Structure formats: structure tokens, C-alpha cells
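Progress note, project year one: complex with magnesium ion.
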Amino acid sequence: MKIARIAAYRVDLPLNEGSYRWSGGKSVDVFDCTIIRVETDAGIVGHGEVCPLGPFYLPAYAEGVRAGIAELGPHLLGEDPTQLGRLNRIMDAALKGHPYVKSGLDIACWDILGQVAGLPVCTLLGGRYGEAVTLYRAISQAEPDAMAESVAGYRRQGYRRFQLKVGGDPDVDVARIKAVAALLGPGEVLVADANTGWLMHEAARVVRGVRDVDVYIEQPCPGYEECLSIRRRTDHPFVLDESVDGLDMLLRGRADGAMDVVNLKISKLGGLTKTRQARDLCVAMGVAMTLEDSWGGDVATAAIAHLAHSTPEEFRFTATDFNSYVTVDTADGAPRRVDGRMAASTSPGLGITPRMEVLGDPKVDLS
Ligand SMILES: [Mg+2]
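Model obtained:
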């Protein structure tokens, strides 16, 4: 089987809440996502999705996905999409770095492999653990009372895990964490994600200010060394996200005892092939995970569901149903949240069918 055509479509995904805000005054109103379609000479078609959280979150931007696919795609035409390890080596040889560009192509080829095998992607990634995957809800940064109100609303929808966007003024952040913690009960989980927003002296004040609150601290500072410094002066469970972009950082974090949980985003690591490798290493090291992506719609959410559902349950800290944050449906068959949880499709591949009328004309079309 050979790759006969690669196309990339741009879809704008407006947010239900109007906007999403996090540290440093950063915000997004409409996400620019790219859906990648890989067609084969056997008539089997696979899809992937990449959606950066704006151009200022990770080293990734929306137009870069399409530009990268135009650069990389010609190297993949004529190659066998079912040989995922081989395909990733070809991508890495043709384009240095740029993991987010490769992610959507890799996901689309997993979708093809699943259809060829007649198996859902989660089975190919290791199996299906449990009935469903527990989700968290990200709470956009706002005043403490507004964030507590938002948590109360999403709690009524069935969520039991919440990730507060902090990383602002330390005194306000302490108030945000305390306002939300007061609402929560047994079995509920609270994470304060600073998204690199604090300097060390600010992070030190916040962790001291919430010393008696049951809260996880996620990526307080920009650099790994600064995070490690905060980690060593707090007994809160600790999550690393932006600092962990591959196996080297996982091994370093393990050696330093730098984290209890890591956040693995599919496009940050370069696709399902590489995220599975990182996931399996975390399982071997006893590190729990948030399994997700930077953002996305139905296709990205399907990929997250397969990755998370194939991860042993005790290692699944949280996952994300990004398709419930946005107003546009891009595919049929994508996971839908029920009572704060979602499940991977049992159909072959990702189990989704894109709505071509929503995708429109391709921005990149290679054959
Ligand atoms: Mg995070």
C-alpha cells in the first residue's frame, strides 16, 4: 500500500465560552486547526489533526502546520503508511525538529493502519483499559469568584477534575485556588496550572500560600531548573508539561525526582508513535500522565481517546475532550463526553468520518 495523496484543510474552531485565557494575558478566541487527510492507492483514507494553542504557547503555529506539510509531504508520497516506525524515520530525516508538523501525518497513518487491520487504534496502541477515560476541565483564567462559578457549572455537567489557569498575580492566584478548592469534595481533583507564568519568588509564595490546600501544581515556571527548584520546596504533587518535550526530559525528570505526573500532548511529542513511546516509558517509571494535545476538535479528540484508553487506568491522571470546548463539529463518530468521561471508538482506525463540507477546499494538496 502506498500514500497517493496528502491534503491539509484549515478549519476555524470558535470557543463555546467566547475565549480561553491563561498566564501572561495570553488568550485565544478562535482556534485555527489543520485536518490532515492521507489517501492511499488502495482506497483507504486516514485523518489526523493539529491545533496549536496559538503561536505563543509551544514552539508551534497554525500556518506552520500547513507550511511544514507542504515541505514534508513530497517525501511521504509513495511510502507505505502502515509502517509507522519507518515512516517516522523518513519524516525525521527529511525535516529536522518540527514535531507538531509530523503529528497529524502520523495520526492519519495510524488511522489507516487500524482500518487495514480491522482494529481500533487503541487496540494497536496496547489495549483497552476500563470502560471510559476520566476527563478534566480547563478553567479559563478570570477573577477568583468567576472561576469558582465556572467550576460549579462544569461540575454539574459531570466533571470531577479541574485545571485552573493561574500563573498571574500570586495573591490573586492563591485566592483563585482557595475559592475553587472550597467547592470540591472527596474524589475530586484540583490542578493549578501556571503555564510557565510565575518567576521562582512568585511560585514560592503561591505554594506556601496554599500549603494546606489539596492541589496539584503544574509547570509553575518557564524553565525546567526553575520548576525543579519549586518542586524541592513544596510537598504538593507536581506536574511538568511545557518542559517535557521528549524522552530526554522524561529521563532527566526521573533522575531528579522532578515530577509525579507529566502532561503528554500528542503534537508536542510528534504524533501517536512518539507519544506511545513516552507513555510506555512513563508506565515503566511509575509516572502518571495527562494524555491530551495542545487543542483541537473531533479528530484530535478521537486520537486522545485512543491514546488514553490504551493507557493502564492507574496511570491516567486525566485526558481532555477538546471537541466539547468548540462550536464546530468536524467529524462524525468522535467521542462524546458522558458524565465527565469519554471512550475510544470500537470501530477500526480512529473511528471517525470527517465532514468534508465543513473542511472545504484543501490549503495543501499533494499527489
Ligand atoms: Mg499544562
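The two ends are 15 Å apart (CA to CA).
The chain has 13 helices and 18 strands.
No further modelling is planned for this target in the current period.
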